[in-house]
Design goal:
The chain has 52 residues and is mainly α. It has 2 helices and no strands. The longest helix is centred in the first third of the chain and has 24 residues.
Length: 52
């Protein structure tokens, strides 16, 4: 795994953690969470998909 891939994966995991906190705080619906998660995957292109 390259340094870029490691950084991308760490950014993706951090973004997922923030999404979980935001969803809990703002009461996001499941479809909204899935939409944001798909957008994060598209933008950050992780090589490891972490379960959320």
């Amino acid at each position: 795994m390259t340094n870029t891939q490691v950084v991308d994966n760490l950014m993706f995991v951090a973004a997922l953690q923030q999404l979980v906190q935001l969803a809990a705080a703002k009461g996001m619906t499941e479809p909204e969470i899935e939409k944001v998660k798909k957008d994060l995957e598209r933008r950050l292109r992780p090589t490891i998909i972490a379960p959320c």
